Amino acid sequence: MKYQAILFDMDGTLLDTLTDMQAAVNYILEKYGYPTRTLEEVRRFVGNGAGPLIHRALPQGVDPDREAEILADYRAYYQAHNCVETRPYDGIGPLLERLRQAGVRTAVVSNKPDRTTRTLAARFFPELDGAMGQREGIASKPAPDMVRAALDQLHAAPEETLYVGDSEVDVATARNAGLDMIGVAWGFRGRAALEAAGAPLVADTPEQLLDMLQ
């Protein structure tokens, strides 16, 4: 294969997590007396991590200390309820198995909290060589810091590594880190948004992605 390592986004790329995120967001909003959000609203809010998600879901003008309390509550609730409806997209399992057989190193780099990222990766994708989520001291995507940390873990060079993701954040992340990138149209944003953001290639299915890697 062309690449020795592949870094994957998680939400909207490997896992369909949207329904569980909406349920967790709305549970917290109801708990604190705020209006709930639709699935399409949550779809627009995700991509930059739990903090921006909650900030966007809350009405304007919420006190910062109150918002921080709500965010902590959301993180705890979602960590305990992140596998109710969450499932891998069709074809992801065979894709990762084929990459493993070819000797390609694979890892997740996600703006989800690190604990949640590692929990989901271990449950659904034990064949991965690494999983990194948002953590203190490392700037989140689209900054290149998490990607560079993952490359160090995989002992992979940027020129031999591909980044795969479903959003504008992922396009910018790959660009900032100096990695080749393929967008996936089956995720939260779709082909048009990826192409508008400058994705050089977009795969419609995991099978097509695999063909692009040959």
TrEMBL record:
<protein>
    <submittedName>
        <fullName>HAD family hydrolase</fullName>
    </submittedName>
</protein>
<dbReference type="GO" id="GO:0008967">
    <property type="term" value="F:phosphoglycolate phosphatase activity"/>
</dbReference>
<dbReference type="InterPro" id="IPR023198">
    <property type="entry name" value="PGP-like_dom2"/>
</dbReference>
<keyword id="KW-0378">Hydrolase</keyword>
<dbReference type="InterPro" id="IPR023214">
    <property type="entry name" value="HAD_sf"/>
</dbReference>
<dbReference type="InterPro" id="IPR050155">
    <property type="entry name" value="HAD-like_hydrolase_sf"/>
</dbReference>
<dbReference type="GO" id="GO:0005829">
    <property type="term" value="C:cytosol"/>
</dbReference>
<dbReference type="GO" id="GO:0006281">
    <property type="term" value="P:DNA repair"/>
</dbReference>
<dbReference type="InterPro" id="IPR006439">
    <property type="entry name" value="HAD-SF_hydro_IA"/>
</dbReference>
<dbReference type="InterPro" id="IPR036412">
    <property type="entry name" value="HAD-like_sf"/>
</dbReference>
<dbReference type="InterPro" id="IPR041492">
    <property type="entry name" value="HAD_2"/>
</dbReference>
<dbReference type="Pfam" id="PF13419">
    <property type="entry name" value="HAD_2"/>
</dbReference>
